[in-house]
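Lines hold sequence, tokenised fold; shown next:
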Amino acid sequence: MKKEKSATALKYDGKAAPKIIAKGHGALAEEILAVAKEHGVLIHEDEELTKLLAKMELGDSIPKELYLIIAELIAFSYVLQGKFPDDWHNIHQRIDLKT
């Protein structure tokens, strides 16, 4: 039996903690994912994180217990998009900035 899909969308303005801006199950989850893909939003699939976020209400900021994991996901998404802070130094030369 196929498990019903769940989705939770976060918005981060770079200042305050990310907030829940959309969430749903089944057809609504599929629609959230489709809109995200349509707008080039990176999607991270994590069943346990989705369960935790699903317990929250729309407009809620993520709790401090999730700051580290969400910060890592945001930072990784920036790297995937080639975005780096102005004062960032590629000291390990592991990221090719020319591509």
Summary: The two ends are 43 Å apart (CA to CA). Residues 6-62 form a domain with the name from scop fold (CATH 3.40.1690.10). The longest helix spans residues 67-80.
